[in-house]
Amino acid sequence: MTRVNLTVNGRAREIDVETSKLLVHAIREDLGLTGTHVGCLTGDCGACTVRVDGATVKSCSVLAVGAEGADLTTIEGLAGEDGLHPVQRAFWDEFGFQCGYCLPGMLLTACELLEDDPDPDDDAIVEAINGNLCRCTGYAAIVRSIRCAADRMKDTP
Amino acid sequence: MTAIGTSVRKADGEVLLTGRGRFVDDYVLPGMMHAAIVRSDVAHARITGIDTSEAERAPGVELVLTGERAARHSGPIPHFIDPAARGGRRAEVRCLAVDKVVHAGQAVAAVVARTRREAEAAAGLVRVGYERLPHVLDADAALRPDAPRLYDDWPDNVILHNHYGTGDVDAALETADLVVTETIRIGRSTTAPMEPRGYLASWDRFDESLTVHGSVQNPHQLRWMLARSLGLDETRIRVVTARVGGSFGLKMQGHPEETLICLLSRLTGAPVKWIEDRRECFLSGAREQVHRVTVGAMRDGRIVAVRDRIVANAGAVTAQPGWAMPNMSATTLASGYLVPNVEAELHVVATNKPPLNAARGFGKDGAHFVMERVVDLVARGLGADPARVRRVNFVPPDRFPFRTATGLNIDSGDFPGLLDKALKALDYDALRDRQRELRSLGRHLGIGLAFELTPESADGPGTFVSGFDVTTVRMNMSGGVTVLTGVTSPGGGNDTAIAQIVCDELGVPLSWIQVVQGDTDRCPSGFGNFSGRGMVVGGGSAALAARDVRAKIATVGARMLGVSPDEVEVTGGVVRVSGEPDRSVPVPDVAAAVLTRAFAVASEVEPVLEATRAFKPGNINHVPDERGRIQPYPTYSNCLHAAVVEVDADTGLTELVDFVMAHDCGVVINPALVEGQAHGAIVMGLGAALTEELVYDDEGRLLSDRFKSYLLPRAGDLPKVRLEHQVTPSPFTMYGNKGAGEAGVGGAQAAVANAIEDALAPFGVTVTQVPLPAPVVLDLIERARSK
Amino acid sequence: MITQNFAYHAPTDLEGVVAALAGHDAVIVGGGTMVVPDLTHGRTSADVVVDLSRAGLSGITRAGDTVVVGATTTYTRLLRDGGEQVPPLRRIAGGITGGPQIRNRGTVGGSACYANPSSEVPAVLVALGAELRLVSAAGVREVAAADFFTGAFTTARRPDEVLAALVLPGPAGPFGYHKLKLAESSWPIATAACVRLPGGGLRLALGGVAATPLPVHLESDDPGHVRAEVGRVLTEPWSDVLADGDYRRRVAPVAALRAVRELRATEESRGIREPRSAQEGEPR
């Protein structure tokens, strides 16, 4: 077992993992954060997306031991004391999900996009979610949700 | 009525958005163990021996189970739809292969260990000896008399052989001005929900009961099936549907792992979890058919006859209902057209490919793809506009109910209305001008239309395909309402829409209502989700139950207000005197009165604030008519797809430029939910039209086993899909609503195929298959060029 | 799931990496986007894993008339910082399959070492005339990209060596590129990258169409010549589940012609070259 120190959604955490453990499994099993999902374990679907030091990554393609010292944000870390993050609210209002399985990837990549580009056009939104598969929505409502979040976040700085 | 017809946000929004949705893999039970499955790497073989010794010695291993031992503790798995009950052949299906494997990927052994990692490692140590048998992967080849046979006690490989349709096709073809014959192939695609299947079974050895958490669509049917295969009393089994991460038919029961994981729990005495991996999930097929079709038409565009010989490749036999889908391909063939003479012959064939599993469209997609190709072939043969040929053949709005030549009794519709809406949205005439302009520049724009008729909310007598469902509405002492329903949601949101119905019918705010689904110990016996039935029968039964509860509330509330029950209304959580908004009593006070003053103010009602009702829609008729046709569907949603593509003739690549779907599913309970379903189904169809195909090597082993080789559409692949709405109420359902959620797959496939053929008209290409990835399209172009 | 534990090293400098590699047949993880899933699915196994992410091998620097791209420079970093120095690499970074999450982790160096025939990076490096800087206890050597890719998933890198950097000739001139893939999810089926050589002619490299990138020397932009040369070098086309060799053989010249046409258009827009005369014809 290897000791790994992390900051997870703002809290310091320590876990002991096998070297063979994937970050996604450490998050789900050792940190108990099951909002991060496993969809393929090949880095294709994006359901396991988390942010490592601010950058979205597919946590099935990262070794847990390699995350030593990292600052992790998972879907559970998005909502604050004031309630849902504006991106979460927009996804709810605009029906940006059905089954919810792809949401970790959709929400976290949307947040990363809007931090880099507060006023993305539809092409930029599509590009940002292109690493995330969704089988329910056909993506239309997801693009609309991110557009809506951008508009609202612009209006309320 | 206020909530019905509005886009109420999904009830599970906050839970899912904050990562608290509990999917089956998120459950952890004390002492839980993990299973991994050893699968055959050959398509057809006798098992000569299984050496489990090394696996049994591996770290953490609790149990290694072989088919032989499994067969001592469990029986055959009953079919979801028994082929024998439909005049077909049944094969015994077991949770692990015994003696023989019939497809690559079939489960032959299972390992239970402390961790998933240990289970997977040990599974790799199980040695299976095979004596290879000749195998057959192609359905036509499997029909030949000398083909290898999958099942020793069958005379051939035919699961079902049947004829459908009425009229005199030969005579009609004789008089037709145009006769076209073509062979059309539908490649094998799959459902691929983002969450694969999974089950967590826990056997309680103290009271000998079994609890199963699973990503499943039909918990009650699964309970029955497990009782049969495990030899348990149904009362000892509880099935709980975890939150389901998409399903699309895949998670209807009949999979061997359902029985297997329960057996593993029973044998180890520990909770056992198994989560399918993505490669395993790709083993399930959704559709694969060949149609040899002949169509006859008159000069004015009227189609007078269709003959179709359908060969469907069902893969190996499973207890899942996938084998029955091609049946609907035949039954739906005439679609929404007047075609008087139709003859379909169907062979559903077993091969050494993995099994077909139920899938969105349930075979209706195959009918639409073929029929819509046929209409375009007629248009082309006559030099007519494909929009006009459709219009000429549509069942007109004043002819409903209309019985099609293949037997379906369409309830209602306005098909020309949909065509008008779609053409207008496209700006069809201007688009044709644009097409000519681009052609002169050497560019290949194509426009494809496709109509789709989606019979929904099926009932199959004697099977688990039930055309009704059951809901309990229960009000507690505080006025809060629990709705327990037999229908389940794979994520689409019918729980939200059912709450909307209860809100309006019972007269309490939405926030007071909780919908509970998918728990056999809590919900009334029902049938889960399939066939777009959630709102037709789940919504209908919830309305009836809510009305019963409302009647009691109104009776007691009226007495509390000192008026007669017909003088009050229940709305927004209060009982008030009609026309006198100031005279009211809160519903919670009435509820408390019913339950605490049963011998006083509430003495006129039976003090049960609960009702359980079933809803059986009209229009279902299983008595064969004079031509042997039955009518298993109450409602017929319909839509008109229009695809615009541009094909790169040098590479065969198709770019989707525009897509419009004009749809009509009757009265809509929650527009945003219906639109979401439509978008999802269309995109699933676009994937199956262009890039999604399960590919096997010559030995029957799956090659397209990840999302880089089985290509689901991504956001960047898609045009902005546009929807147009039309409402033609169903006369046979509670609100005039029709099934929603399935329509999209076959229509999108056909519209894209038609558009590609249209784009490549200068080359004289005939599109005869889906999917149409670039290599296939380039082949079509080169073949047409070399003609 | 990775079923076997391994010794894990994450050295903090290049010397540490070299030391960790000595004497082992280690699996090197750069961004992990390809190697980690391979470990998960048993396509590769490891006793020792050496993680480069802390070894300080990321960054883009100018050295004389070359540009040095550290082996662990991610696609995202290239998108952000590569515009001035290595526009061709920046451009392919923007088109990588898998979305921002893959660009945030995936590296050009890793893609080169993985040597997937269906990857676009190797051929681009060949076209650009890149050198791959390999470091081991025995020293440093630089291998031309054209010599580095020895087969499908195999390279000239020895097990004790680590790819430290890609060395690209600079400044980058106009670059022509075309990528053909079946869908957003798909790996490239055919790519073509080309640059104009100082002595005349073009250096073009085809990717995705054979086990290794195929260098094509072109005397001119003439479409007939381009077709003929591509046909000549593409003797054993790559075949996979998405497209067979026959398809790749047919579209390779199309990709090449489009890359050449794009190069030409760039040159014309920058005033380096006169617009094409009518006789030359328009390649398609």
Walkthrough of the structure:
The complex is a heterotrimer of chains A (157), B (787) and C (284). By secondary structure, chain A is an alpha+beta fold. Chain A has helices at 23-30, 86-93, 103-116, 122-128, 140-155; strands spanning 2-8, 11-17, 49-52, 55-58, 71-73. The longest helix of chain A is centred in the C-terminal third of the chain and has 16 residues, at 140-155. Chain B is of the alpha+beta class. Chain B has 20 helices and 29 strands. The model of chain B has no long low-confidence stretch (mean pLDDT 97). Chain C is of the alpha+beta class. Helix content of chain C is 33%, strand content 25%. Chain C has 10 helices and 14 strands. Chain C has helices spanning 14-21, 35-40, 75-85, 87-94, 99-105, 108-114, 121-128, 145-148, 223-233, 245-269, and strands at residues 7-9, 27-29, 48-51, 60-63, 66-70, 131-136, 139-144, 149-151, 154-155, 162-169, 175-181, 188-196, 202-207, 214-218. In chain C, the strands form 4 sheets. Chain C has a 5-stranded antiparallel sheet with strand order 4-5-10-6-7. In chain C, strands 11-12-13-14 form a 4-stranded antiparallel sheet, with helices on both faces. Chain C has a 3-stranded parallel sheet with strand order 1-3-2, covered by helices on one side. The chains are: A alpha+beta (157), B alpha+beta (787), C alpha+beta (284).
Summarize the entry for a quick read.
The complex is a heterotrimer of chains A (157), B (787) and C (284). Chain A is an alpha+beta fold and 157 residues long. Chain A has helices at 23-30, 86-93, 103-116, 122-128, 140-155; strands at residues 2-8, 11-17, 49-52, 55-58, 71-73.
Question: Which labels suit this protein?
Answer:
heterotrimer, A: 157 residues, alpha+beta, five-stranded mixed sheet, 5 helices, 5 strands, 34% helix, globular, B: 787 residues, seven-stranded mixed sheet, six-stranded mixed sheet, 29 strands, 29% helix, 25% strand
Give the CA-based shape of chain C: globular
| Number of DSSP helical runs of chain C | 10
Helix content of chain C: 25-40%
Q: List low-pLDDT spans of chain B.
A: none
The chain pair with the largest interface is:
A-B, 54 and 57 residues
Q: Mind describing the biggest β-sheet of chain B?
A: 7 strands, mixed
Order of strands across the widest beta sheet of chain B?
Answer: 3-5-1-12-9-10-11
